[in-house]
Amino acid sequence: MKNASEGSPSLFRVKKVVVLTTAMLTFIPFWKAAAVVLCDFGSSAFYAGGIAMRAFGPAFPWYILAVMLFSGLLLMVELEACSLFVRGGAYKIVREGLGDTAAKLAASALIFDFILTGPISAVTAGHYLCGLANSFLEMAGLSFTLPEGGISVVFGLLVTVYFWRQNVKGIEESSSKSAKIIAFSLAVCFLLAIWSFITIGLRGAHMPPAELSFSPESLGWAEHIDWMKTIGLVGMFMAFGHSVLALSGIETLSQVYREIEYPKAQNLKKAAWLIFGFALLFTGGLTFLSAVIIPPELIAAKYNDNLLSGLAMSLAGPGILKLLMQVMVVVCGVAMLSGAVNTSLIGSNALMNRIAEDGILTDWFRKIHRRYGTSYHIIHLIAAVQMIVVLVSRGNVYLLGEAYAFGVMWCFVLEVVAIARLRWKKASHKRDFMFPLNIKYENYYIPVGLILLSGFLLTVALVNMTTKQIATVAGFGFTAFLFAVFSLSERLNAKKANTMFEEGYRERINAETVDDLKEAFSELDRPHRVLVAVKNPENLYHLEEVLSKVNADETDVIVLYCKPVENVLYRQDMRSAAVDEHEVFTAVIFLAEKYGLSVTPVLVHSNDAFYAIAQAAAVADAREVVMGVSGRHGANPQLERAVMTWGAVKDRELSHPVTLRILWEGREVSYRFTR
Question: CA-CA to 553 of 20 to 30 Å: which in 97, 164, 598, 628?
Fold first, then answer.
């Protein structure tokens, strides 16, 4: 970073200008946010149906469809969680609602989920590629086939190594790339659906049965419990439990919420509707069409691990066209599944960093790569474990899927219970959305809907414990191990954790020193500008008022913090009141994310804050200057001082009026400059 000073010797002149590049946030539209979620959530369409078929037979499409309908309820849970704006997803929600111990358990289960997301996605992509290669061999008349298990393991390792390297470099998931993948997937889905209906019209359809037929492997310990083997309500819970892995990635919505553009709440709801509709049609619809068109025995024997390829090859028509359709399915599948591998590394790294921010993990985990600036120790650990899982699984998608459902279910259980608990702990917090079915009692909303949902999820999770031996042993073992690591690390890091707790969360900020104010505002391109002066991170009412009412399409919001120049005796009282800029801009970034609006944060060094504000407003050609009330001087003296300073700075005729506003809760004083 280079230092640059203004050339004027004036004591009042701005001495240094710093633009906070990290805080110049870029927000994405709701459809791009939905695409990011769907690249993870939608990828389960390629393996969920085959796993469910192997677990309880030809009735699997009914339960995959039921799970997709059920995803609407979980999306509503995520909507309420996001409306609380507790940054950090399920881990932070559980920590706020249920405390540190439950949060560490939730984090352990979620990391178990992330660790398995990569292998199951990579291995499934390998199965689809191998299935496509075998289709070419069959069409060529060759009698041998490639071993799917071995090919899927090799491909899984290659994909994991590739994205491990990319994440060490710090290349993150692109929302634009995700949108293109989802657009292509929609096209493939549309073609498959139209062709499937034509096939049904030509050949007829065989509707999947409702009867459940559990294999001994899928019954687990329940094989020795007679009353659980009776097909009825318990059997339906068991079948649902074997299908919940189709909910993979739905929690990603809370991760991308901070990036959704203004108006945030409305765009979040639109994104949720898009996610629900796509999942219902893509995962639920295509799985159902597969069961209608492909004979059950062929699914079990040939297309168990690449169901949608089986749908493409079972359509009516010439073989070459069906092979071309399979190529499109495989390209779509590899793109989505590979994206899910990348998301698993990004998500687990972000989660581990949030845990580290709370002081739970020692500095070893947070060590930054000298060249790329990434927390490479965490990335190395996650990638290494994922590669071990790929090798141990030997390409068995069913084994990975059954284990994967463990983390999904227990994470949802803890999150729903935590949100219900927050109804009491944060009763006064305004929510843009509440999960349905509530009873108002005094100032509280009793979450009847959330209580019923948590009961259902807990029942399914407990049934899964008895029917999934490997998942239960592996899941509880891994969760217990991670919980022990977190607890031990927290004790070793206790002193630093206390310091971090006292100081609070601080955003990582990159800063660029520029030559002058004109350069700092050179990239602003909207027709209007409003400059908001900030000083105290706990007094940002005026900034929130601006963000809640500004026209984001036409107005650039400049957030200015004036820091007194060090080693200057002038105005000792101002210098002593200086606040660490990291605290100020962490609070500013939080508000910008909350409202989904971009801001341009600028730090200037000056001995006179009023002069710096007036000078910045003049250079930026701002139409409005907004300040918070000073607790020391009061609004009217503050306004007088600002007006006097403006007269000393503005030495030319105004091209438009400028309004100076001083805001505090419920009140405002203002002055309008016209020349």
Answer: 628
Cis check: omega of the bond before 263, within 30 degrees of 0: yes
Amino acid at 536: N
Residue with tokens 């206790």: 494
Are the C-beta atoms of residues 74 and 411 closer than 8 Å to each other?
no
Residues 198-208 have pLDDT tens digits of 999 999 888 99
Structure confidence at residue 310 (pLDDT): 94
Helix, coil or strand: residue 674: coil
- Whether residue 24 is predicted with pLDDT greater than 70 in this model: the reply is no
- Domains in the chain (CATH in brackets) are 16-22+509-673 (3.40.50.620), 30-490 (1.20.1740.10)
By three-state DSSP, how is residue 672 classified? strand
Rounded to whole angstroms, the Cα distance separating 379 from 359 reads: 19
Q: Per-residue pLDDT for 217 more than 90?
A: no
**How confident is the model at residue 208, as a pLDDT?**
93
Whole-model pTM: value is 0.85
Integer Cα distance of 396 and 398 in angstroms: 6
- Could you read off the pLDDT of 572-606 as tens digits, one per residue? 444 444 567 888 888 898 888 888 888 999 999 88
DSSP-assigned letters across all residues of 522-555: TT--SSEEEEEEE--TT--HHHHHHHHH--TTTE
Whether 22 contacts 507, CB under 8 Å: yes
Is the pLDDT confidence value at 323 over 90?
Answer: yes
Q: What is the pLDDT of residue 542?
A: 95
Compute the Cα dihedral for 121, 123, 126, 132 and give only its sign: negative
Distance (Å, whole) CA 629 – CA 612: 17
- The residues, ordered by sequence, that sit 6+ positions from 575 with a Cβ below 8 Å of its Cβ are 564, 566, 568
Residue 582, φ and ψ in degrees, nearest 5: -65, -40
What are the φ/ψ torsions at residue 552 (nearest 5 degrees)?
-65, -25
